[in-house]
Amino acid sequence: MARVVVVGGGFGGLASAARLAKLGHEVTLLEARSELGGALGFVEQDGCRWDTGPTSTLLPAVIRDFFRKSGRPAEKEIDLVPAEPARQHRFEDGTVLDLPGGSRAAQLEAVEEALGKGAGARWVSYVDDFGEVWEALRKDYFERVWSAEHASKETHQLLESRLSLHKLVDKEFKDARLRTLALHPARLEGHEPRNVPAWVGVWAYVEQNFGAWTIPGGMGQLVDVLASRLQTRGVTALTDTTARDLIVEGGAVRGVRTESGEFAADAVVVAIDPRRLPSLAPLVERTMPCIPPVISHVGITGEVPELPHEVVLHGHEKRDPTLVVRTGGTAPEGMHAWTILGRGPLAEDLVTALARRGIKVHKQVETRIDRSPRELVSDWNGSPYGVLWQGRGTVRNRIGTVAPISGVYLAGAHTTPGAGLPSVGLSAALVAQAIGPA
Ligand SMILES: Cc1cc2nc3c(=O)[nH]c(=O)nc-3n(C[C@H](O)[C@H](O)[C@H](O)COP(=O)(O)OP(=O)(O)OC[C@H]3O[C@@H](n4cnc5c(N)ncnc54)[C@H](O)[C@@H]3O)c2cc1C
């Protein structure tokens, strides 16, 4: 049995710890904050409860697989249900599109109906083209620890391609609304589409094929389930414990140094931004973190417009911010708990900006919590959005699953395959694969 220390108690660290414990390792998890979960979790005020970060996930198989591989199946502990529609898009010209997830035929029909004749066919044809991309990446990059020797020629070509998502989308669509639709996920995460490799568009294929999923009452419920899974598997989880650096001797890791002492280890899983550990920071100096959006959690009283679980308000690409309303918070009788995210040129209060775009609840806000990107990064000890895309070189410039220090592995949003719950969940599976059974 190897002693493994996992640094970071976000979804990446929690999922890695549970999987490694199931494989028979002796696992200690170190979390700097006083609670586990990182971006995943709840914030509460005046009887309202909002998800702090994720409100839905793609690729539910990743979550289900995690539960299966670490003990009992997910169905026994959480209620993962389809989020339908995946989201509502409102475009600058007034077009409203309820985009379904999990069905090509349903997307074809919905896009055709909302955006006009031919638009649905163009959209599904764009998404179809990612089918082969998905198969190649899944085999060599998402579900198998990356190895240049084992990867197929197709995967090499994809990862090395100079084609950006922006260029691909520009070539595919004349309709500005379809371009906006295709670029939305990358923009929401804070990337400039010109710097995002085209293969990242594969998530549109994943959403169309496997749907968007949520947990009624909030994704934050996953944290308690994960924490109790750690307990069952005998993981020692220490909160209020900040890792200061790795202890490295003769090119191999020997443990982790914290303010409260040293933790000896045969292997260390770094599930935080590696920039925060001096031994790893020089290895990622050519990358930058991707910064979270501006957020307002609001509790609203009285009548509110009937909205699906997520509404995206797109404005003019250069002049207006993109606003996202997430309506799934829980609130006392007569109230509603919404979260508003803002990206792009935001020059006014989020609730005012929302009113200007037609969702007028500004006079009904009873309670609110505003969080700036800076506060969020400081509170979460790094950005849960991982590494900013700066072109195809970003894949090489970030550290992959296996770090170049013997015994050090990376999980979480800052490593392969990237940010978001499905990718972070995959990163934990990759770490378990790389370390193997005890
Ligand atoms: C506002 C917002 C909305 C989002 N919405 C979605 C969504 O709807 N769907 C989706 O799939 N994804 C979403 N995401 C992305 C997703 O939440 C993240 O990619 C994912 O949760 C990151 O998990 P992680 O474990 O890598 O990092 P984090 O959640 O950032 O966790 C890292 C943990 O490590 C701890 N830590 C840091 N440094 C140290 C140290 N030195 N020692 C010990 N501990 C340390 C931190 O305190 C933190 O708890 C959203 C993110 C945000 C911010």
TrEMBL record:
Matching SUPFAM superfamilies: FAD/NAD(P)-binding domain
InterPro entries from the UniProt entry: Amino_oxidase (IPR002937), FAD/NAD-bd_sf (IPR036188)
Molecular function via GO: oxidoreductase activity
Domain Amine oxidase: start-end pairs: 12-435
UniProt cross-references to Pfam families, sorted A to Z: Amino_oxidase
Protein's name according to its UniProt entry: FAD-dependent oxidoreductase
Organism: Nocardioides marmorisolisilvae
